[in-house]
Amino acid sequence: MSFNNYTSTCVPLPMENVDTDQIIPARFLKATSREGFGDNLFRDWRYLKGETKNEDFVLNNPIYQGEILVAGKNFGCGSSREHAAWALDDYGFKVVISSFFADIFKGNALNNGLLPIQVSDEFLAEIFEQIEANPKTEIKIDLESQIVKIVEKQKVMNFEINTFKKTCLLNGYDDIDYIISQKEAIEAFEKNRAFSYA
Amino acid sequence: MNSNQLKTLFDKIWEAHVVQRKEDFPDLLYIDKQFIHEVTSPQAFDGLRKRDLPVFRTSQTIGTADHNVPTLNQHLPIKDMLSRFQVETLEKNCNEFGVELYSLGHQKQGIVHVIGPELGFTQPGMTIVCGDSHTSTHGAFGAIAFGIGTSQVEQAMATQCLLQNKPKTMRIEVNGELGKGVLSKDIILYIISQISTSGGTGYFVEYAGSAIRSLSMEARMTICNMSIEMGARGGMIAPDETTFEYMKGRLHVPKGEKWKEAVDYWKSLPTDEGAKYDKEYVFDAADIEPMITYGTNPGMGIGISENIPEKAVGGSVNEMSKALNYMGLQQRQALKGKKIDYVFIGSCTNSRIEDLRLVAEFVKGKRKANDVNVWIVPGSKQVETQAKKEGLDEVFQAAGFELRQPGCSACLGMNEDKIPTGKYCVSTSNRNFEGRQGPGSRTFLVSPLMAAAAAVTGEITDVREML
């Protein structure tokens, strides 16, 4: 999919320090494939005991729909489990907006075509306010120009993304394709390094 | 020397591993060692198969089964079918790709961050990765060690390299002498409570100062282990005589002349006097008392004599009220005297032989409180064997502490070692997130000594009053 001129409504999760154990609890990490984790996304917040849905949780509120998750600062902290990115993607999210991301989560998201967009605390607060006022609020994302826009208010903000990762996302490349293409340089490095552990 | 040429420990190691550097592009960083385990590697092996790629340097990859293994009756087939399949998949993958594996039943099996140092795989100056955020543990040897996701596990297996943006550097200095009953776990819980659960994000931390220098290797590992709990990608401590003494003679360290050469190289690694860091903190060891967390992230911690604050450093009032509601606690409440249900002594943070010795020494001649379950889960088979050799198992048994078999266990509640809903667990592990130790479980993070004290009294206790 392309992130150019991409527009969606949002699901607000105005909580700080959402850790990857909440995104996907460890007991659901027993699978050996990448698929199917969306069913257990935010499992312990989405469900009360057993299979009873927690009606207070935003994913169970039909008013809020969309492929953009908007979350409080320091989203994705804790465990390095890439299953967190897989679960968000499998559930149907394409973008996560926050004012701060944990490092490993951010890398995992980018490696799975899930776009983490970091905005200022003020801009994030504005998005939350706007969603509260109008749950159908749309956010537009232009990856090429690195712009995120609250459509209704015509408010925009630039976001940072590493040029390489941007190219990967825009073209569907993977780090591994690039690294493999550098094999000669890697072998030369191994031969010539000052101190070798091999 | 020109001040621009002065380098930190981190810079020296990073620069020695840059295969390729281009403007506006992440560095291509060479990885010396990769540890793999059953939970975050199967999809990476599948990726290799799909691309028809081998593991590029099999001798630099080591596997173990730890996250998802039972801690009782390890000689029997794993009961949980999904867990069994995951461990069997690891065995099959390592066999097929020629990767050395310490699987369940092996005499050297254990938690990945315990066996790496134990077997001498972990060495100063290395770059080390693993699909586990507590890979930061290995930084205690003066290595750049950090956790990665499964896509990167695949990349490192395929190429022995990763594309990485160089993080900023942070120095955290702790000076002075630690008080009675204060352990390295208290130092790191204190630091996290001061700079918050996200205060280290974007940084690689170097711990320094006389209080850090005086610690044993195992105590240093506890500190580096929890670097990720303040958001830092990793933490490290410059190698010194303590490091070399710990390493000497271990299975995979260089021997003879090569050992001497290696030590000479490692001695060149510590930060040059006057080198600059992007951020610095200085703490006084005398300000640190036995610590305990009250909330649902590791930054929500206090000294045992303190009361729960209005909010955590860097946190909001909303977050605090959600956390305390989950924990069944209130602002301004003291934790001392709070009844508890479980004690868990284990995890990659505190499951090494020194931890078990400290606990055994403390509980000798004492008994656990009647209504408390106490689990001791050693970090590796070697730790378990050593504990038995020293008779620690008998001390634990007499105290009513249950000594189990190695694994990650109740730290993350992936196997059957779960804390029941609503129950309180005093734990030596690293995370107090909601549901971390089992759905609805409530965790208090502490040092092994504080955990042992709580086990004996059945309530949260200031261990200093019992020493």
Question: How would you characterize this protein structure?
Answer:
The complex is a heterodimer of chains A (198) and B (467). Chain A has 198 residues and is α/β, with parallel strands linked by helices. Chain A is built from eight helices and seven strands, in the order E-H-H-E-H-E-H-E-H-E-E-E-H-H-H. Chain A has helices at residues 20-23, 43-46, 83-91, 103-110, 121-133, 163-171, 175-180, 183-192, and strands at residues 6-13, 68-71, 95-98, 115-118, 138-142, 147-150, 155-158. Chain A has a seven-stranded mixed beta sheet with strand order 4-3-2-1-5-6-7. The longest helix of chain A is centred in the middle third of the chain and has 13 residues, at 121-133. Chain A is globular. Chain A starts with 5 loop residues before the first strand and ends in a 6-residue tail after the last helix. Chain B folds into three domains: 8-164, Aconitase, domain 3 (2-Layer Sandwich); 168-287, Aconitase, Domain 2, CATH 3.40.1060.10; 335-466, Aconitase, domain 3 (2-Layer Sandwich), CATH 3.30.499. Chain B has helices spanning 9-15, 42-51, 81-97, 112-118, 150-159, 184-195, 210-213, 217-225, 241-247, 257-267, 317-327, 353-363, 381-389, 392-399, 448-457, and strands spanning 18-20, 27-30, 33-37, 61-64, 100-102, 127-130, 144-147, 161-164, 168-175, 203-208, 234-236, 279-284, 291-293, 301-303, 342-345, 373-376, 402-403, 424-427, 442-445. Chain B has 467 residues and is α/β, with parallel strands linked by helices. In chain B, helix 2 packs across helix 5 and helix 12 (353-363) packs parallel to helix 15 (448-457). The chains are: A alpha/beta (198), B alpha/beta (467). At the A-B interface, helix 4, helix 7 and helix 8 of A face helix 2, helix 3, helix 5, strand 8 and helix 11 of B.
